[in-house]
Every structure is written in structure tokens, then in C-alpha cells.
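Hello again,

I reread your note about wanting to compare the complex against the isolated chains. To keep things tidy I'm splitting this into two emails, and this first one only covers the full assembly. Below are the input lines as submitted, including protein chains and any nucleic acid or small-molecule components. They are followed by the predicted structure of everything together. The single-chain runs will come separately.
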Amino acid sequence: MIVEIDENKIISLAKKTVTEALKAGFEEVAAIVNYEDEAMVKFANSQPSILQSWNNISVSVYLAKNRRVATLSFEIPREEDALGFIRNFVSEIELSEPSEYYAPLPKLETKIKGPAEIHDSIIKALTEPETYSEEILNTALTYEIDKLAGMFKVVAGFEALATSTGVETLESYGKYEFYVRVFKGEGSGQWASAGRILRREEIVETTRVASEYALASKRREKVASDVYDVILSPMVVSNIFNIIGTMASAFEVDMGLSIFANNKVGDVVASDKLTLIDDPRNPESYSMTYVDAEGVLTRRNAIIEKGVLKTFLHNSKTARKYGVKSTGNAGWINPHPWSLEIAAGELKYDELIAEVKKGLLITNNWYTRMQNYVEGMFSTVTRDALFLIENGEISKAVTKLRITDKLPRLLRNIKDLGRRRYQIKWWEAEIPTIAPYILVEKIHTTKHML
Amino acid sequence: MEELLNHVVSVGTSEGAEYVEARYHRVAESYIVMKYDKVISVGKSVSEGVGVRVLVNGSLGFASTNILSREALTKIVKRAIEKARALAAQYREPIELAHMKPREAKYSAPMKKSFDSMSLKDKIVLFKEVWSEARNVLRKSRMQAFFIEYIESSEEKLLVTSEGVKVESYVPRVSIYGNFVINAPEKGTMQRFFERGGSGGLELLEKWNIKERVVTEAKILEKVLLEGKSPPKEKVDVVIGSEVVGLIVHESCGHPSEADRILGREAAQAGESFIKKDMVGKERIGNEIVNVIDDPTIPGSYGYYLYDDEGIKARPKYLYKNGIINELLHNRWTARMFGVVSNGSARAKDYTSEPIIRMSNTYFKPGDMSFEELIEDIKLGVYIKSYMEWNIDDLRWSQRYVGLESYLIEKGEIRGYVKYPVLEITTESFYNSVDAADRSLEFHAGTCGKGEPAQGVPVWLGGPNVRLRSIVLGVAPY
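Full-complex prediction:
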């Protein structure tokens, strides 16, 4: 269906929304119009469980008047209704109060009209999801597994941005997300992949890794909770760094939802082995974008470089408050990371394992929750294959534990990183993250006591 | 709208679908976000569209759009059928739905005070007062952070299916969510998230009395931060407060009782369940006193509905009854697989969402003691009243709750504060350790996540204070 809406209509609607809101009495306006066509096959018990498809238009609007700030969003059938809501909101916003975060929208004159850069593989998968579904199921069947579950999603769309300060942009995108969980005996393995080009090799490799972990953990033994050196797989790294990357938002810092709440730029916050980057300009990234919600050009930002906090993530509001420039991460209210990356290390997978005298290889986790965001107290439950490493070798698969520690300590205890990276996006890691395996020393684990 | 939905159903059946379900679904929300006593932003969102589900040759398809022309809807239903048909050969076990009778119904959740009975300005003033009182109660620490998000919403649905269902509903809701951080330089910080939610109108704001709650909690948490001691290392009796009990029954009874999870449908996302098909009606999970109920029909509740999103009449379900795994949460597919009728547990978050099995308002049935009676024979114990950190494994067996507002119990009395006691326990051990519950019943609001794409839906989690015997508490390694 992607060809059925003219991209010019998307940009026209964004511009019209800005014009109408200004006419209604708002002083500053930004409007994002998005049109998306999406298909998803969900798997369970080695068969599809449902094919879902979506075909939606959304309009999001930022409004300011007398330093009062509002955001509105609409997924509604009638353009005129959306405009009506905006007009009527003039009287509402006047009842609000000036926002301490108010800053004028940046005057940018950014003009981008992105070419249709949707890769053929995405269009094909959107048109024939059943072909890819069959391929996934057939690939899994080449392993001696009990069953497979998972999800395969493709999206194509347009996004237009117009502002009252001269921004007019139109970007198109096509992307995929795929993850599988494979079961064998007592064991299971889960792996994920995401990006802008759907390569057959990605499907094969993702399924292979999940299957191999499932097969290798099919018999498990109990293990004591202890302080271990742990190797976190890219799945675990993505989940944990989704939280840490989000905590780099200056707004999250202000709200008391960040381990960086008591830090300033230049502080050492991690091991010098760690470099954490937000890179929306990576052409392979699931979330690649040229501009943020204010029309500021996005850029590659090192959040932590060799252990040093290099920047918070800013929109123009938090930037004004902190006396810096926007980093191109708007969010009209809350800046956010687009696409996280952890710089690769130098070690091969086997070399990382060889570094560990007594420790764990944690291939997946879920349900990470914080006791205290400011101090970074957290726990997360291991899931799928978990291996005990003894004297540099995997000795056996073991049963579940929890990582129970503090994020700042985890960051400081990073000892080494793998050289190969994977782009992960799945249910427990919504921000795409390009991550290697990471070795962290002296991590506390717990398990149920009764 | 009804005509459009009938058109969708008619196109679907004429294209060969065995079942067609068309749901108009509109969710409108207004919000205020405040930091301390300052407004950050206000706003509104409206999502309105149609979600269509079809069953074709045993293959399930779902499509949704907010382009509500006859032409666009015809196209999406045809596409859903075409794609479901193309996938049908990949199903080893075709999907079938349990029988249901045709039904027409219309209901709405009562609202005593409409959302516009108070201006935006007055609502802001109300939340300013929370901060102005909370900031002054701390004696030896300061509030490092404080925010409140207030949301009022309305959900309208019209469901029409090829099996003679027509159900129309309207449910307004109000919720408040917030966070504060208390900082005492030599002791560190203590953080509290708080949430209230229910169906109805602005009468809920009066009922909740957020200001008093936040002020009281801030005062107590300062004491816990400054004076709290580690929990005893030996086995002790533990009293778990309503807020924690509600969460525990949600996590270790409600979720594992979802029949779709038991059948593996969520295996790659929220996981599976320790409950197996043959345990239902037989397997003991805890003491006789253990009764956990899921009831969507509680007036004023956050997870309120009277008909589910497949058109099945909602009713209370005893998930655990007298300590036995008693009944699962079903939709029409799982009901067919288990050879029962659906008990009306299918919910969809919005028009972009397929209906899946969800909890509504899940609670531990109260006992008949007073709180004083519950603790009177405890020589040494801990009362865990609230929590922050929690999690549970993906079979819903091994779980962890870290206490926030917690007290030491000595010789039947509350004496002093305990900092971060950890209850890390299996589901079986928890329900076998419960030996008494008091007669209080409180409900707490939450947003439950499940499905792909993830659907957060409003739920209540509730219960009385319950007592556990002979528990080893952990100490958080902070």
C-alpha cells in the first residue's frame, strides 16, 4: 500500500497544520505527519500465530504560546477534526502556565526532501510476508529443535516535519525487525536482528544463534548465586544500554530518572574500555534519521567516550537550560537516543570466554527493574541459555539467576569487549542497539531463597 | 460507523473468511506534566480507527487503519484475508474458535464529575499543592526530584462480528503517576514511584487525596532512609502490604493463568507458564487461604469492562481457589483448545491492537483478621508495605520484590524501619507460606504489558495485608 499515499500529501498536511495553528493564535508550531505501512508475522509452536498489518496516518504537533507549551497527537480519520482540536486548544493552553523548559524553536531553514530509499528487500517482505515466514520456519527446521517462537516485522513509511521557523523535511524509510526464541529440552536460546536491508543471511544467522544456544542448554544444572565475572551477550547489552542511553537524556536527569543525575560532562562514569554512541546517521540503523523533531540535523554523538561522560542528549529546551547546543535528539519535551552503539573491542568470542576464570555467559535477560534510578540499583532476570565458565571454557549450562547490582558499578567494571557487533532490537530493547559481547567483572547475582 | 463495520464484515465473509470481527476503537487522552510546582507541558492525544480480525482456513489475520473510507476498509479486509490465506499452509494446527451465542449489548462506566467540571488551571493548582506540602515535610533531607503526570482518558468501542455480536461501550478513566527522590547526603537517596488509577471522572481525585498520600509517604521514607536497618538474617515472619500483594498475585497468579501463554503463544515475548493444561482444577499451589480473583466488573476499577473484545460477557474468575489452580483466563481460541467456553478475557489496547488475553482487576481475597491480629503473635518480623524493584522469570516461578516502606515487627508491634528487605521466592513457596490475611482490601493501579506490538492496558492489582511464616529475607547489595 505504500505507493498509495503521495508523499507530497504528507508534507502538505504538515505545512497546513503549521499554518492553521499559527492562524489559530499559537506563536510557534512544529508538526510531524507520519504515514506507515507495516506487516508482522508472529510465530509460536513453529507456526504462525497471526499476521498483523497496519496502515495508519498520524499527526503530532508541538504548540507554544506565551511560553506555554503543549503537545498534541492524533491518529484520526479526518484531517479537519485534527485541525479542529488544534484550534480549540488555544483556549486550553492559555489556562496553563509558562514552562520552565520553554525555549524558542530553533530557526533553521532546514530543507530536506529525502529520496525514496526503501530497500527492495523491505518492499518485497511487505508485499509477501508469507515467503519470509516460510523461510524462517524452514531454516529453524534444519536444527533438531523442539519448537520456535518469534516475530518478523517490516515497515515502510514517510515522515514529514514542518515548523513555524522554516523547517520542511520529508524522509522515507524501510526497516525490519526479527527475533526468534528456540526451545530444546530444558534449554532455550533467543536472538534478534534489525536494520534497513533484509538479508537472507541475517535470517539464517539469527535462527542459527538462537538454535545453537537452545541445543547447548538442553540439559541444565543448578548453580549458586555469587559474585561472578560475566559475559553479557549483545541481547543483554542492548537491554541494559537501552536504559543507560535513555538516562543520558537531560530531561531524564532533571526528572530524577538517571544515574547521571549527580554527574557533569567530563566525569569518569565508566571503564575506559567503554564508548557509548548515539548514531542516527548510520545508514544500516533501524532508526536512521536526518533530522530530529525540531528540525535540527541529527549527528553521531559520543555519550560516553573511553569512560568519560561526553554529553547529555539535548533538544533545544534542555540545551538552553544547560547552556549548550542541541545534540539533535528532540523529542519536543524529552530528548532521547535514536540508535545506540557500543564501540567494539578487539577480542573474538572465544578469546573473551578465555579471559574468565570463573564466571557466567548470559545470553539473554528480561524484566530489568530499578529500585532507584539515581543510584542505579537494579535487578534483571536471566532467560534462555546461561552457561558457567570455568578456567576460560564453558563448562556447563545452568539454571536461571538474577543480576542484582548497580548500573554505575557495572559500567566501571567493564573489562573487555568483543570485536563483532550485532544490531539488536526486540521486545526488551526497543531502541536499536549495535552491541558486542561485553565482559564485566565482579557482578552480584541472586536467586530465590525459598 | 455501524454501517461501515457491517460493510467490513460483509466484505470479509463474501471473500471467504470463516470469521470476521470489526472494532471501531477511539481513545482520547489529556495530560498535564509537572515538575515540582511548575508545568512542563500539557496536551492531548486522540487515536481513532478500526481494527479487523479475520480467520481464513484456520489462519488468523489482523489489519487496522485510521483511514476510515469504505474503500480503505475494503482494501484492508481483503488484504488481511489474502495474507491469512497465503499463510494458512504454514499452520500445523489451524486456529478454531470456541462457540458463542450472538449478543447485543451497550454499557458505559459511570462518571460522577465530568472532566470539564474542573478547569485545566484548577487541576494545575491541585497538583501544585502536592509539591508545596511535600517539600516542607522533610526534616533532614531534601527532595532531589519530583514530578507528576496526570491523565484523563475516554475509551469508546463498537464491536461487530460475523457471529452476531454488537457491543458498544464507553469507559472514562483518570490516572496519576509520579516520582520523588529524597536525598540525604550522608545516606544517599530513596526513590518512590506512585500511581493511582480508576474508571470514572474527577470524583476520583477527591477520593484519592494524592496530597495527603504523598506527604505521608515522603515523611516515612525519609525515616526509612535515615534510620532504616538491614532486615534480620534469620527466618522471620513477614507481613506483605496490599500494594505488594496485588503485584505478587498479578505476576505469579494472573500471568501464569493466561491460557495463551500456557499454549506458547507469547513464548518469544512475555514467556510461557509453569501452569500446564492438566493442572487446572487439581494442582495445589498454596494453602487453603489462597484465593485469587480476576474481576473486570468491579465498578470504578481501572481494568473495568462488561464485555470483552470478542463480545463475551465478563465475569469474576477464581484463578486460585482455596489454594488450587482453579480457572484460567481464556479467549475464544484458548477456550476451544481447552474444551471450555471463553470467560471473556480478551482485550485490545486500541484500534491498532489484536484482542489478546489480559488480566483486569486481580486481587487476593481478604481474610477476617484486623491488622493488629495479623501481627500480634509475631516475635520478630518485617512488614513490607510498598516496593520499587521487582521482577519474575518468564515461567512466572522465581520472583523478587524489594521493599521500600518497610518496618520491623517485634513482639507483635511495629518498631522501627527496615531498609530494602528483599523477598526472593518461588510462586509455590509464596502461596504455601501465606497463613493469614487481614480484612482490608485495597486496589492499586498499574499498566500491564503483553503482546507484540506490546499493548499496555490498565489494570488494578489488589489485596489485603497477608502474613507469611518462616521467611528468609535477602539484603540488596547496594
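For quick reference: The two ends of chain B are 56 Å apart (CA to CA).

B.
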